[in-house]
Amino acid sequence: MNFKLFLLKFILSFLLGFYAFNIAVNYTVLKSASTPWIMLTLLLFSSGYCVQALFKLPESDEHPSLSSNELRRLRPMLKIKKNRLTFILCYHVLAAIIVSLGFFSISLTNPIFPRFFSLAGGMVVSCLYTFFFVKANMDEIQSFKSKLIHRAENEKRKKDLLDSITKKPE
């Protein structure tokens, strides 16, 4: 997935969430400020998947069939992906901290609360959108590993076939 397109959709998802929660807070009556466990869970949902992708990413260059030339080209791409996933993970953690501090420190009667609730909604929707970017990265990693495994198997079959053809009869 193109990262610039992702950023554009990420910003649009934040704005969509912001306005959706703004409409919700304006047309509903909030009676009590319960602990925002549901919002925090939604915020951190895709961060777990992001952490998994960050741990799985370094495994991509460990396959023994990779040549030194392929490794030289692969490592900068992996570094870019790692930086992007780290950025997303930092956003998730920052959003969770902001939302939790806001819900615990801003009362319902405070005139800032509706704006904060809208901001929290924007963060939740944008964090949920990042799940799709992380999933696309995970699928790309898995596809790459699969290609390497199939390439190694094909090379082994070719070698066995060549050995059987060139083998002298006894």
Question: How would you portray this structure in words?
Answer:
By secondary structure, this protein is mainly alpha-helical. The chain contains 4 helices and no strands. It is rod-shaped. The mean pLDDT is 86.
Keywords:
about 170 residues; about 80% helix; 4 helices; rod-shaped; single chain; mainly alpha
Q: Helices, strands, pairings?
A:
Elements: H1 3-27, H2 37-56, H3 68-105, H4 113-166
Helix pairs in contact: 1-4, 2-3, 2-4, 3-4
Beta fraction: under 5%
Given helix and strand content, the structural type is mainly alpha
The span between the termini is 56 Å
The number of helices is: 4
Largest sheet: none
Number of strand segments: 0
Mean pLDDT: 86
- What's the structural domain tally? 1
Quick recap:
The chain has 170 residues and is mainly α. Helices cover 81% and strands 0% of the residues. It contains 4 helices and no strands.
